[in-house]
Structures are given as C-alpha cells and as structure tokens.
C-alpha cells in the first residue's frame, strides 16, 4: 500500500510539472526559448572547454573528430553564440526548417503533376497537401520569429494536455484501487 501512495505522489508531481511547463511555454514562449538556448549554450561551453582541456593535457585523441580540440573549440564558439545571441539561433533554425519545407512542398507539387499525368484518381490530395505545406512554409519564412514562438506554444499545449491527462488518469486509477481495497 505504501508503494501505491508513493507512486501516486510521484505521478501527481510529474503531471503538475508538465502542466506548469506547458503554461510557461504557452504564456512566455520567447522567454522559454531564450532560457533553453542559454542552458544549451552553457552545456556546450562546459563540454567544449572540457574537450579542449582534455586535449591540452594529452588525454584526448588527436584529429578533428567530435571529441578533439577542434570539436571543443566549435562547441565553445556555438555555446557562446547561444548564450550571447540566442535570438540568432531562434531565427536561423525555423528559417532553415521552413526553407526545407518549401523545397519539399515543391517536390510534392511535381509529384502531384506526375500522378495526374499517370491517371491517378486522387492526385489532387497530393496537390492540396503540397499547397498547404508550401503556403505555411512561405509564411514561416516571412516571419521566422513568430513561427518559432508558435511551435513553442504548440509544445506547451502538448505538455498541458499530457499533464492534465496524467493527473486525471492517476486520480481515477487511485480512486478505483481505493474502491477495490475497501470492498
């Protein structure tokens, strides 16, 4: 019985954590992105410095692999960018992903035309998907900062839904177990 109570408390804490994180991501997406970039930047700074020190002390492999002096320098440089200019990464990543989506939508457009030429009856579904993806990608390219914030908000909503469902399931199951034990 003690194990069940401990599990219930742990599951409730986990669910509430997801709910709080979801709210934070939904209410303050820009602040959350800055925080994530800074934490990732600090981790890269520490990891890169560790690699550089290990190399200089003769405890790392020579070469240009990920665990070398060169890898450490690149980690430190990228870490500095993340810490000092997180907005650069917040614009660059959604912009690059949006360009990839736009290219993919153009490929899908070509496939749609090929499907129509081949006499495939549902070619228009592929055309519709390519147009929707293309328009969305183009809009993301026009405003990558808002796009990144929108993605963070969607992740926040997913965290909220996950937390609320975990909380509901935990409370429901614990009530059912309690009812069974009382019988």
From TrEMBL:
UniProt keyword Cell membrane, yes or no: no
Domain of life of the native organism: Bacteria
Stretches that traverse the bilayer: 9-27, 33-56, 68-85, 91-111, 123-142, 148-173
Keywords, alphabetical: Membrane, Transmembrane, Transmembrane helix
Protein name: DUF308 domain-containing protein
Keyword Membrane (UniProt): yes
GO cellular component: plasma membrane
Protein species of origin: Candidatus Ornithocaccomicrobium faecavium
Record-linked InterPro entries: Acid_resist_chaperone_HdeD, DUF308_memb
């Amino acid at each position: 019985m003690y194990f069940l109570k401990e599990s219930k408390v742990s599951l409730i804490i986990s669910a509430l954590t997801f709910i709080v994180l979801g709210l934070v991501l939904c209410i303050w997406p820009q602040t959350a992105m800055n925080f994530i970039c800074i934490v990732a930047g600090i981790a890269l700074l520490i990891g890169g410095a560790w690699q550089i020190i290990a190399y200089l002390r003769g405890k790392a492999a020579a070469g240009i692999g990920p665990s070398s002096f060169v890898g450490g320098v690149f980690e430190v440089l990228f870490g500095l960018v993340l810490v000092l200019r997180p907005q650069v990464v917040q614009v660059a990543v959604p912009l690059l992903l949006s360009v990839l989506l736009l290219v993919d939508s153009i490929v899908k457009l070509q496939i749609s035309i090929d499907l129509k030429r081949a006499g495939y009856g549902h070619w228009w579904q592929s055309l519709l998907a390519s147009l929707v993806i293309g328009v969305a990608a183009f809009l993301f390219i026009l405003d990558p900062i808002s796009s990144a914030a929108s993605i963070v908000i969607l992740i926040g909503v997913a965290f909220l839904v996950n937390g609320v469902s975990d909380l509901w399931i935990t409370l429901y199951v614990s009530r059912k177990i309690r009812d069974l034990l009382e019988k």
